[in-house]
Amino acid sequence: MELYYGQIATPAGPVHYVVSSQGALAITTPGQSVEEIKAVLKRRGFIFEDCQPDDNDSHRVGSELKEYLLGSRTDFTFPLDLEGTDFQRQVWGALQDIPYGETRTYGDIANSINNPKATRAVGQANHRNPLPLVIPCHRVCGHNGGLTGFAGGLTCKQYLLDLEQRVTK
Q1: pTM of this structure
Q2: Which residue of the set 51, 137, 141, 156 is catalytic?
Q3: Contacts of 133 (CB under 8 A, 6+ apart)
């Protein structure tokens, strides 16, 4: 399988991504290092060094990510190349149902997948999310509405939430 690596510059730091022939396979949050991409690829059985440059913006992943981070895009149209457990896929599907500019709690997500006692497991599925901007785990907050763990850090999470709030107002 051919893999393509790209990086885009954003106001919040670089975003790295890898695309396969099926779609987006891994994306970092702004400012995360390429090491995050390497870890996702390793879990999938791929080697980063086998990636070719994404000079043609495969599936428009780079373009759409940049548009999102500039506030001119609220959803993504490119295909996803996801691999995860059934539970992870359920959680990731529920995350994609959170409207742009809104947040939900871990409990809300657990309830939405008919597994109300799985709030911690929802957090673990969020942690394994290979496409954190596209599958918007930054829109998940603690039970009191406060910011909680995020792979890109709480500053990045707040940045993304603020971006979406500005666009929706």
Answers
A1: 0.91
A2: 137
A3: 15, 27, 29, 65, 68, 69, 160
Active site residue 137: yes
The angle subtended at Cα 125 by Cα 102 and Cα 82, nearest 5°, is 90
Q: At 153, is the pLDDT very low, low, confident or very high (cuts 50, 70, 90)?
A: confident
Report d(CA 41, CA 62) in Å as an integer. Answer: 18
Neighbour-count burial of 37, counting CB atoms closer than 10 A to its CB (0-12 exposed, 13-18 middle, 19+ buried): buried
pLDDT tens per residue across span 44-75 = 999 999 999 998 887 899 999 999 999 999 99
CA distance 60 to 27: 13
H or E segment to which residue 105 belongs? strand 104-105
Nearest to 26 by CA among 12, 14, 15, 40: 40
Q: Which two tokens stand for residue 27?
A: 């994306």
